[in-house]
From TrEMBL:
Keywords: Cell shape. Belongs to the MreC family. This is Cell shape-determining protein MreC. GO terms for cellular component: plasma membrane. Residues 129-265 form the Rod shape-determining protein MreC beta-barrel core domain. Gene3D superfamilies: Rod shape-determining protein MreC, domain 1, Rod shape-determining protein MreC, domain 2. Involved in formation and maintenance of cell shape. GO terms for biological process: regulation of cell shape. InterPro entries: Cell/Rod_1 (IPR042177), Cell/Rod_MreC_2 (IPR042175), MreC (IPR007221), MreC_beta-barrel_core (IPR055342).
């Protein structure tokens, strides 16, 4: 049976082909072609539309992926640009801060200086504060700290990245000073009092000192350079025994609002 089927299949194909060839020029053949065409043409149109749709869909997803990659790259560039802008802003603010320092009579051109940010305060708000500079930046104990020509204090504790500055409001700091407005340049010693004010002592009774006079560093103590502003005289106290006088000195700014300071390297 299998051998018979093998012979019959080619014969059937040959017979069908011969039949179609014979009727191809007849009306019946044209009718068959027309019927076949009517059946397959709509299918062809549908397949073509589906193909174009799939092609457009593929192109859409490719373009979407490309746009996503471009947006990712643009996001990275924007982040880098924002970082650069922030860095430039910090540099500009530091330059403005340094320009402010140059507006005062005290000159730091022969000294090594370093700008630092204030990052923390003591609990009492006046005795000490922390800056974001340390050994890695070349900061040392006894470096002088100023802002806008005013004496702030000196570095007393240093680690790798941070330092503690003890302010002149602390009783631990003693500064040799003089009265800039006095004809005799009255001298004395200033120490912090209760972390809130300053007391100028060891003023000779014959020396003149008046309320409102500006007190500056004399530079005679070997630590603080001459010419830094300490404050202004708020009150003068005469000794009942006629010996040494004293004066209350008011700081000219709020230590708790410090944001940036200038470090003067110890010589």
């Amino acid at each position: 049976m299998s051998a018979r089927k093998t012979y019959l299949q080619p014969l059937l194909v040959f017979g069908l082909s011969l039949f179609l060839l014979l009727i191809s020029g007849t009306f019946f053949g044209k009718f068959i072609r027309l019927g076949i065409s009517s059946f397959y043409l709509p299918l062809t149109s549908i397949f073509n539309q589906v193909g174009r749709g799939l092609s457009n869909e593929i192109i859409f997803w490719k373009n979407l992926k490309k746009l996503s990659n471009e947006n990712t790259e643009l996001g990275k560039l924007l982040a880098e640009r924002n970082s650069q802008i922030a860095a430039l802003k910090e540099v500009r603010e530091e330059n403005e801060f340094l320009k402010d320092q140059l507006g005062f009579s005290f000159s730091t051109k022969n000294s090594k200086t370093l700008v630092a940010d204030v990052v923390g305060f003591s609990g009492d708000g006046g005795s000490w504060f922390t800056i974001n500079r340390g050994l890695d930046d070349g900061v040392s104990v006894n470096d002088v700290v100023i802002t806008e020509g005013f004496l702030i204090g000196k570095v007393t504790v240093v680690n790798n990245q941070y330092s503690r500055v003890t302010s002149i409001l602390s009783p631990e700091i003693t500064v040799n000073v003089l009265d800039q407005d006095s004809q005799t340049q009255t001298s004395g010693v200033v120490t912090g009092r209760f972390n809130t004010s300053l007391l100028m002592e060891k003023i000779l009774p014959e020396e003149i000192i008046n309320i409102g006079d500006t007190i500056i560093t004399s530079g005679t103590d070997g630590f603080f350079p001459r010419g830094l502003i300490v404050g202004k005289v708020d009150a003068v106290f005469d000794s009942s025994s006629g010996t040494l006088k004293s004066a209350e000195i008011g700081a000219q700014f709020d230590f708790r609002k410090l944001e940036q300071v200038l470090i003067i390297k110890a010589r």
